Amino acid sequence: PIDWGSLAGTMHFCMTVLTTIGYGHISPSSEAGRMFCVVYGFFGVPLTIAFVSLLGEVMKGVHDRATVAALRRVSRWGPDNTRRAIGAIFIGLGSLLFIFIPAVVFSVGEGWSYVDSLYYTFITLSTIGFGDFVTGRQRGVQYHHAYQGFKGFWLYSGLAFVALIFFAMTQSVNEAGKRMEKRMETR
Length: 187
Hints:
This protein is mainly alpha-helical. The protein has one domain: Helix Hairpins, CATH 1.10.287. It contains five helices and no strands. Helix 2 crosses helix 5 (145-186) and helix 3 (79-110) packs across helix 4. The longest helix has 43 residues, at 31-73. The chain is elongated and about 65 Å long. The model has no long low-confidence stretch (mean pLDDT 85).
């Protein structure tokens, strides 16, 4: 159960609602709490989506500027190979920052194995949110505010990164489908 008297518990509930992850382990228990949740979610979810989209645009801008700068410097590779290399570096660094390093933090902070923490980071950032692993649930453990702040920063930034990657993957699949369609039409 959530500790409504703690800042950490309340923040965790708020982030769970706003990100629509819904781990399934906490919910409002009173009618007043449910009505608050409806109003809070009604206004908060669209604002969170806008905020995460903005973060994604900032990340895409960094990626695009890095690609342009690299294309100027590494012209011998050719534009396609340079774009692929920059994309791979972007995905690698982002995965390190939002998946692999946070998994170490959660492994230490929650006492989970690294594999379980890695699983948690992906399940959370992909918004699958099964609820089998949820941070901040160890009885008797007082979580530091810096840890809670890290989780909030990680969650919103990581959601933007994963959404950007999923969007890019979807675009690539759609473009490949269009190319295949054109090839089929010319036969």
